[in-house]
UniProtKB/TrEMBL annotation:
One GO-annotated biological process of the protein: 'de novo' IMP biosynthetic process
SUPFAM superfamilies named in the record: N5-CAIR mutase (phosphoribosylaminoimidazole carboxylase, PurE)
Classification via InterPro entries: PurE_ClassI (IPR033747), PurE_dom (IPR000031), PurE_prokaryotes (IPR024694)
Top class in the EC scheme: isomerase
Pathway recorded for this protein: Purine metabolism; IMP biosynthesis via de novo pathway; 5-amino-1-(5-phospho-D-ribosyl)imidazole-4-carboxylate from 5-amino-1-(5-phospho-D-ribosyl)imidazole (N5-CAIR route): step 2/2
Residues reported to bind substrate: 17, 20, 47
Keyword Lyase on entry: yes
Gene Ontology molecular functions: 5-(carboxyamino)imidazole ribonucleotide mutase activity; lyase activity
Name of the protein: N5-carboxyaminoimidazole ribonucleotide mutase
UniProt function note: Catalyzes the conversion of N5-carboxyaminoimidazole ribonucleotide (N5-CAIR) to 4-carboxy-5-aminoimidazole ribonucleotide (CAIR).
């Protein structure tokens, strides 16, 4: 898989640089927790524009259902990918050394009408993975059931902490 594509993957997890991986890894972990097959690759809007377009245009035909795209700084990757695929794209603003990730967030979130990107919080890669699981769960009852169980677990965790606090 020299180009990062993976047969059978439902989610394409891409990022503008390998330096984004420490942030984006949390999305991979969430997908793995839900048993979702995914592929990982570096696809840069600015350094490999043709590769980005090829990836976006081919993804649906290869069976990818959701794309998670993370980038930092002038983070054009999620929006550009969304412009070249009919698939849902989840954008992850990766925080860099300067501007606390606000540059990444604003580059991703403020899309023109007609080209949506579902933007998560700065560094919110785990939520990107969970959102991809919810999207896939809409047409996969077993996966949706696992999401409901996960949510029940979150609720129980809060209740347990509340009880511990009052002990
Ligand atoms: C962006 O530029 C990447 O997504 C990354 O967040 C940032 C810096 O990339 P490197 O210079 O670390 O490769 O396109």
């Amino acid at each position: 898989m020299s180009d990062g594509t993976q047969t059978g993957a439902q989610v394409g997890l891409i990022m503008g640089s390998d330096s984004d991986w420490p942030t984006m890894e949390a999305a991979a972990e969430a997908l793995a927790e839900f048993g979702i097959r995914f592929e990982v690759g570096v696809v840069s809007a600015h350094r490999t524009p043709q590769r980005m377009l090829d990836y976006a245009r081919d993804a649906a035909g290869r069976g990818i259902k959701v794309i998670i795209a993370g980038a930092g700084g002038a983070a054009h990757l999620p929006g550009m990918v969304a412009s070249a695929t009919p698939l849902p794209v989840i954008g992850v603003p990766v925080p860099l050394k300067y501007l606390d990730g606000m540059d990444s967030l604003l580059s991703i979130v403020q899309m023109p009408a007609g080209v949506p990107v579902a933007t998560v919080s700065i560094g919110g890669a785990r939520n990107a993975g969970l959102l991809a699981a919810r999207i896939l769960g809409a047409s996969d009852p077993a996966l949706q059931q696992r999401m409901s169980a996960f949510q029940a677990g979150l609720e129980q965790m809060v209740l347990d902490k509340d009880e511990a606090l009052r002990r």
